[in-house]
Amino acid sequence: MLNQLRRIIQEVNSARNLDQALSIIVQRVKETMQVEVCSVYLKAEEEQQLVLMATEGLRQESVGLIRLAADEGLVSLVATREEPVNLAHAPEHPQYRYFPASGEEQFAGFLGVPIIHHRSILGVLVVQQRRAEQFDEDHVTLLITIAAQLAGAIAHADASGEIERLLGNHDDALPSKPIKGQPGAPGVGIGTAMVMYPAADLEATPDRLAENIEQEIENFRSAIIAVKAEIQQLSDRLKSALPQEDFALFEAYRLMLESRSLNEVTIERIRAGQWAPGALRQTVMEQLKVFHEMDDPYLRERGEDLRDLSLRVMAHLQEGHAHNGEYPDNTILMGHEISASMLAEVPQGKLKAVVSVRGSRTSHVAILARALGIPAVMGAKDLPVGRIDRLHVIVDGYGGQVYIAPSKTVEIEYRRLAKEEDTLKSELMALKEEPAVTQDGEHISLYANTGLLSDITPSLNSGAEGIGLYRTEFPFMIRQRFPGEDEQYQVYRQVLEAFNPRPVTLRTLDIGGDKSLPYFPIEEDNPFLGWRGIRITLDHPEIFLVQVRAMMRANVGINNLQIMLPMISDVSEVDEAMALMQRAHREICEEGAAAQMPRIGVMVEVPSAVYQMEGLARRVDFFSIGSNDLTQYLLAVDRNNAQVADLYDSLHPAVLRAVQQIINGAHAHHKPVSVCGEMAGDPAATILLVAMGVDSLSMSASSLLRVKWVIRNLTRARAQEILARVLSMEKTAEIRDYLHECLDVAGLGGLIRAGR
Ligand code: PEP
Ligand code: MG
Questions:
Q1: How would DSSP label each residue in 55-94?
Q2: Cα(625) to centroid(ligand 1), Å
Q3: Which of 54, 388, 579, 646 stands 20 to 30 A from 501 (CA)?
Q4: Can 652 be counted among the known catalytic residues?
Q5: From 510, 569, 635, mutation site for ligand 1 pocket: most ligand atoms within 8 A of C-beta
Q6: Is residue 207 part of a domain?
Q7: 676 a catalytic residue
Q8: Assessment of whether the complete model's pTM goes beyond 0.70
Q9: pLDDT, tens digit, for every residue of 556-604?
Q10: Ligand that lies nearest to the alpha carbon of residue 472, given by its number in the listed order
Q11: Element (H, E) at 133
Q12: Is the same domain home to 106 and 123?
């Protein structure tokens, strides 16, 4: 049975479209279960009806015609009950409804199971038989298993508008609902979809015998040279927008193009008789297979970089062109896999937003989009890429939503929001030089989070009082090997100098979890509970020492450095790290530099740290709450998993209690405490954090002035009243609603959307 099931699912998954998938299901289920009828009914959103979409056994003419209202027929009964209905004599059931067009009067036995995805009923899968008998347990479980497996594919078809199209409700075949993804970079972008697709199709390139081996080798070499020149041009084009440091990405591309594994291996294949395009395909497919088998999402993404580059090479081999270079003024770059190089290809000023089916907020393209201030939505897996080129679209980078050919109402609403945003931004700019002080005189320092050198200017412009979190893993991620001490020194020095005399908190390398390095693969079943952050760097003192030495050397003569340790779960980690940092400091002084020992702090982001505040406080100078990880670990909800994203909220009562406990613990030992996770930039959370007595908040530069506005419109006393009420609430949704109401009453409602 399991094998049959696998075969059905495989066939369905390789179907070209929903229509074909549904007919495979009904045919195969009918054969496998040896029943007389198998049918699929799907919910038509607009009328809330269940519509017969495919059948084997009922009359084909009834497809699309049989439509059942919510209280009509046994199929609807299955949907309302959300459980299987298994009847020996269906026509005798009070809810049975007979459709003469179907020819179903001959069938007595009825089994229907609901198709449910994330708690929503998408449809019903039905089998019927002449025999007046109930179906046996095996039949029921097989049908339930198939329905559960199909639910994901049907939800995708629904979201991308395919069901509506099959039902003929939309002749333009476009989704009527927004396509959901992950917010990749904030902002609203309105413009024309420019769908990027590979200029050459790698997989489709055939094998062929080379007619002239030397000529083929020559073609291949020239294609590589041409692509190197293209990449150089792209990087030149971005020169004015990105600082030198962030160009390591293009350096990585160049190294990939020069690699032995690409060049020599392909040339060997050509020498063995294969023509250049075939040899390139074989080499790249072989390497991609290795990349794809890696569990690590970051390394898998590097495989996509290789694919992107080799497609460019292929385009040259085939004398094609990657793109004709004409981009409209309001370009919305969309595609299956938007790469950093595609983004760089659009002339500055024309790019309004980016949407990619694949990738997440940690993909290079999202990092670049944020650095350039362009809204982005990542992981928009239901985007119907084949049907949207040149259409009008709206990209909501705050909420991670994309509207294809939006209605007038949606467009008006988003234009209004975009305008409000602009007004809000200019109103907020007036606060830039103002202090973040509550109306009763409480000062909360506001710092910026960064990790790219290109973020420094926006951070300075936002009026940040310093850097509260510099994620050092970004400069590590865009290289092909660990950066050396001098390379790191240059990066850190620039940041420390730019903010001098304001404090800059450099966090030591926090790789592992979802952040990995292409040259340091980590294979784990549970990476977030595995070798991460301080655990890795303590196991590799050579990496840790080089990094802290670079930091301390960069601090010489400036003295605004603070060092922060990530993922601390035990005091002995602090002791060990402290010993290494003291050693590094001693060495630097012995080498003759006038280095000062910086202030050292820890992130409180693992629940065990919450209960060790006393021991930690004795060892360090400051604390910073990593609400992103703290929330994920306290609630046992993967911060990157879209399936459970609804459960992830830093306003959960348990998280709020932990945060309060951390702040109290730090203050009991007279140590300052900050929040540097996303919570710090959420205006709703600001009220509570002020009430709890947090000393500083560190957030992305784009949130900073909004948070300042909330602080300046609050009194600590009022915030404390609100906190008391919130702590009496048991449900996260209730807390969020109440806080939004409070912001509204204070006239700060406009901040909520953007602060999400
Ligand atoms: C956090 O966990 O809240 C945090 C700031 O660190 P990161 O998001 O880099 O894990
Ligand atoms: Mg963290």
A1: EESS-GGGTTT-EE-TTSHHHHHHHHHTS-EEES-GGGST
A2: 9
A3: 579
A4: no
A5: 510
A6: no
A7: yes
A8: yes
A9: 999 999 999 999 999 999 999 999 999 999 999 999 999 999 999 999 9
A10: 1
A11: none
A12: yes
